[in-house]
Amino acid sequence: MVIHYLPTELSHKLALEGLRVLTYLGFKIKQHNPFPVELLGMHMDNNLGLAAGLDKNGDYIDSLSSLGFGHIEIGTVTPKPQKGNKKPRLFRMRSEKALINSMGFNNKGVDYLVEKVKQRKSITPLGISIGKNFDTPIDSAIQDYLICLNKVYSIGDYIAINISSPNTKNLRDLQSDAHIENLLSSIKARQTELSLTQGYTPILIKISPDMSSDELKIISESVLRNKLDGIICSNTTTNHNHSSKKGGLSGRPLFESSTSTLLKLRDYVGADLPIIASGGVMDLETFEQKINKGANAVQIYTGFIYKGPSLVDEIINSVS
Question: Is 165 marked active-site?
Answer without folding.
Answer: yes
